[in-house]
Sequence to fold (556 residues):
Amino acid sequence: MMNEFKSWWQSGTPWVWLNAGAVSISLLLVLGILGMIMVKGMGHFWVADVYEMQYSDGKSAQRVIIGELVEKAEIPLKMYKEVEAKKLPEGLDKIERWLIKSGNRDQASADFQWIYAHKIDAQKTPENLIKLERLEWGNFYGYLKNVQENGKLIAENDEAWSELNKRFERVLVLREELEELEKGRISSINYGLERIRLQKRKLVLDKEDSAENLKRLDDEAKAYNVEYDVVIKRLNHLREEIQRDRATFTTDNGKEVIISLHMMVSILKPNQMGVMTKLGHYAYNFYHFIFDAPREANTEGGVFPAIFGTVMMVMLMSVLVTPFGVVAAVYLREYAKQGVVIRLIRIAVNNLAGVPSIVYGVFGLGFFVYFLGGNLDQLFYPEALPAPTFGTPGLIWAALTLALLTVPVVIVSTEEGLARIPINLREGSLALGATKAETLWRVILPMSSPAIMTGLILAVARAAGEVAPLMLVGVVKLAPELPLDDNFPFLHMERKFMHLGFHIYDVGFQSPNVEAARPLVYATAFLLVLVIVLLNLSAIMLRNRLREKYKALDAG
Fold:
């Protein structure tokens, strides 16, 4: 028996099972964390019922609380007795408290409140309770009283709901046109006028400010100004039209509140909605979370600018890091004379992979932004000074910083791929008359492309989640303009941008409304994981295709 156990132990089987168990536990932990993030984040988009509760806190008369039930929690009886010196109801063996999202932040000090379940005298879910999502001040909960147009009563009581929805659809159409004018034509006009201003200053600096040149620019500016006047007139008309309709609501304390329809994002009666209707609105909420811009200090709205900035930065970083990493690896493996110096370089490359990312951020700020960007401004954009163009954090410097951070991974992976290519393939190519450069370009690099893609996958996985260096070289809390638009040169790499990782940090740790921000932290974190997975899957699919393409040649 002992001999069999000793033989089994020496065979290495226990270590195989131990490693398999460790990997399984790690996978379960990762899946558990992702599951928790998904449940807490994606649950934010579900339309919950709205309660009306009669509540007695013992300090004042019974009051009405209207809101959504967000969370339930139990607290020990001992802790409750220390908090409130009040006799508990008989037979109560636990204290349960509820977190209620009561909204109406413009009417009360906070839109979340904790209440004790045993102090709720009665609760119901009236079908005519309304939930408004607003552009400012968060959600509003209450009852609709009437609809007005320019202060004139249009509908009230039962007729008010249908009239409200009809007029709200009109407001949505007007808002869409307003946004198109403000973010499209007005932005384009301002961009053109600023370009003309800089061209005039450049003519002055170059001493080419002749009357003919200045008149040409003035004519361009005059055309922009004429177009600007037309757009402004249309904007003013739309603003008057969109602010025409208002509605009166009654809050839980009986106060009447008048809200303009142009401040509303959505109007719902959650307690009237069935499961299928809620599923449809769930998809609607998730869609707008993906494609809308954030608002209310990033605690509401969507994350599209952050998604766009993350993907754009990763793609630009990939374009920059791949050639540098591959060229460095090819030189070290194929051309450099192997010796002490090359060994030291390889050690340095491996050590660079362990340098804290914030160090790269400091280097990127000092070298890329201040030195390289500042000199570019002096050479190519003197007319814009002292306002910097490239001498300020932006997309290009963030991509270069992350390329520098991840280039050791690409170098090491590419070198390993080059080392695995059989020597007979190299010798066969040279024997057929190909030069070393032709052999490298037509045989070695194509066969090592799966290893290059592996390095790129690892680089993308690390770069997409980095936050610390980006805070120094380009990422901001809120970017008014995307790096990509319809103004020449279309891709503005000098602009600052938003990033999902920094958005999570900002919402989670800098938000003035913690309870409102918490579900968005989970939702954005889950979205960041999905973005990284999609980027990696795209690279993995390309790598697998390349691997299949060169498998037969590699086997030979």
